Amino acid sequence: MASLTEDYRRREESVTLSSEPAGMGETHELFTLNIGPHHPSTHGVLRLLATLEGEIVRDIKPIIGYVHTGIEKTAEDKSYWKVIPVVERMDYVSYYFNAMAFCGAVETLLGLEVPPRAQYLRVIHLELNRIASHLVWLGTSALDIGAISMFWYAFREREKCLDLFEMSSGQRMHTRYFQVGGVIEDIPRGWVEKVRRFCKEMPGRADQYADMLSKNQIVLERLRQTGIVDEQTLLKLGVTGPLLRATGNPWDLRKAAPYSGYEQFDFKIPVGTVGDNYDRYRVRHAELYESTKIIEQALDGLPEGPFISPDRKVALPPRHELATSMEALIHHFKLVTEGFRVPPGEAYYPIESARGELGCFVRADGSAKPARVHMRDPSFSNLQAFAPMVRDEYIADLIATIAMLDPILGGIDR
Amino acid sequence: MPDATELELTAQELRDRDGESVIETEFHRGRAVLVINPPKIKSVLAHLEGKGYTFLASLHGVDYYPDEPRLGVLYELLDMKRVDRISVKARVPTDAPHIDSVVEQFPGAEFPEREVYDMFGVVFDGHPDMRRILMPEDYEGYPQRRDFPVGGEPVLFTFNEETTYGKNV
Question: Which run of H or of E encompasses B28?
């Protein structure tokens, strides 16, 4: 056992346990505390080395890589359409966003037009996923600061989102619904009505969450004036999404550089004022209403027409054609065995995920497999802002701050 | 995205300041790329930052095997005011994979530079904490390089945990 510990330390010898701020150790009594990697409040397998002086955090070092699964490497070994289920497993709470970023990058390289109906269906699923993702965050974050009942309420509504995903694609998570060129199949009969019912119910539910949390004395004291970082520091650190918007910067790619038809919808971007944990909570909470509004508009304006590109070199032919058309059979065979080829080039496709800018970089070399897939995951960049957020604050606020940071370790480690 | 003309103008501006900075430009599917001379990375990024590209959205590595120089480091810059993106690419060879770190200029480059080092072996000179970030500390090799085999990674089980990962070093 002793040799195991020794060996473990040797393997990690470059991790400095005394990460004290320069010279502080001479005048202050410092204490290093290891938090995680297995700790319920780190939202995954995140390890933190905290240097404490009493109860005050003087410095913090996040150590990551515990769920690194080499997804970017795996993607290089698969044909384009088989990469989609692989990248969906990166940020496992917002899988539709990962698929959207990847499909968007490949469509850019192909110069492929996505039919309007597919764009609308994508928007509906993306926003449903944003609600589901924010609900996971809301439930678990409230749990971290001691409000256990919030967890059950948030997961009740999330369950309804997952039911909708199951109805449209057959899967509750990692649905593989988005395809290069559109979506895999049209929505089933009755789905629109179910989504409408959900949209009608959701604002009332969000009001109830607000009633429970927004004016709760404990929540206010835990969140207000904690974890403040100013806008310029966040921008320098590459932070985007609700964390940046909480400081009052209305940067949202859905508005700034619309993709997939977002310019056709009327919605607002919630922003905060001071950028503390409470603002982060309020921004995400307000996004629940805005996403609902987008879904309702998309359902109202859902165009008729094909749900996937008619380009047979990229999209599978409809099933019924296989029995009658030799050409369709050949296309089907080629697509399923080899996959489609993408002309050489590089593309970077950024979208606004539930956590910020999710960019997918794809390099094609002309073959049927990507030569490089890279995901710029928002959690990975946002985690860099964690140290400035918690420095010189209480260790109890560290737990609240990491909850409001909303990191997804699957996305960070990939 | 700047259009092709604007990309050329930007490249010309950089060349006027330093004749060796820009090697070539690429414009493909609306994406503007400045291929630059690796030692000039800091001055190029400083110039682009002065032009408004103040946000480093992403920094990642690419292996251009079998082309030389093999490794590429890509900087995706964003101008939030004009909503404009430009990419900067620096190619370094595998036998001397060195490039200056831009952490001083963009503190957000710290984790991504460590990731590129981890996956491709590009060393960022001047980085405050240049070590692996995702792979284990004693890992050998750079897994994202194209000549690194998929499946070459031993899986740890109880029966081989004593013999894997540098136990026999």
Answer: strand B22-28
Question: Which among A11, A238, A361 has the least Cβ separation from residue B136?
Answer: A11
Look at A275-284, B67-76, B146-155 and tell me which has the smallest mean pLDDT: B146-155
User: Among candidates B39, B102, B38, B40, which has minimal Cα distance to B70?
Assistant: B38
Q: Say yes or no for a CB contact (<8 Å) between A414 and B33.
A: no
Helices (H), A184-276: 191-213, 217-223, 231-236, 242-245, 253-256
Gap from A235 CA to chain B (nearest CA, Å): 7
Q: Which residues in chain A have Cβ-Cβ distances shorter than 8 Å to B57?
A: 238, 350, 357, 359, 376
The answer to whether A253 and A357 have CB atoms below 8 angstroms apart is yes
Q: How many CA atoms lie within 13 A of B159 on its CB side?
A: 0
What is the token pair recorded at A373?
């897939």
Let me know how many helices (H) and strands (E) chain B has, helices first.
Answer: 3, 7
Owner of token pair 């933190």: A48
The whole-number pLDDT of residue B13 equals 83
Average pLDDT over residues A216-241: 90
Question: Could you tell me the maximum CA-CA distance found in chain B, to the nearest angstrom?
Answer: 63
Contact indicator for B125, B101 with CB cutoff of 8 Å: yes
The fraction of chain A above a pLDDT of 70, given in percent, is 94
* CB atoms B138 and A347 under 8 Å: no
Which of B24, B25, B29 has the highest number of chain A CBs within 10 A, making it the mutation to test binding with A?
B29
Cα–Cα distance measured from residue A108 to residue A362, given in angstroms and rounded to the nearest whole number: 10
Q: Alpha helix locations (H) across A89-147? A: 95-110, 116-144
Nearest beta carbon to residue A347 from set B29, B55, B136: B29
List chain A residues with CB under 8 Å of B137: 11-15
Q: Dihedral sign for Cα A120, A122, A123, A124, please.
A: positive
Three-state SS at A313: coil
B15-48 pLDDT, tens per residue? 888 888 888 888 888 889 999 999 989 999 999 9
CB contacts of B26 in chain A (<8 Å) are: 346
pLDDT digits (tens, 9 = 90+) for A388-402: 999 888 988 888 899
Q: Do B153 and A7 touch (CB under 8 A)?
A: no
Nearest Cα residue to A369 out of A348, A345, A338: A338
* Other beta carbons less than 10 A from residue A372's beta carbon: 23
Q: pLDDT digits over B94-140, tens only?
A: 998 999 999 999 999 999 999 999 999 999 998 888 888 888 877 77
Q: Which of A7, A236, A361 sits opposite B60 (nearest CB)?
A: A361
Q: Do A77 and B150 touch (CB under 8 A)?
A: yes
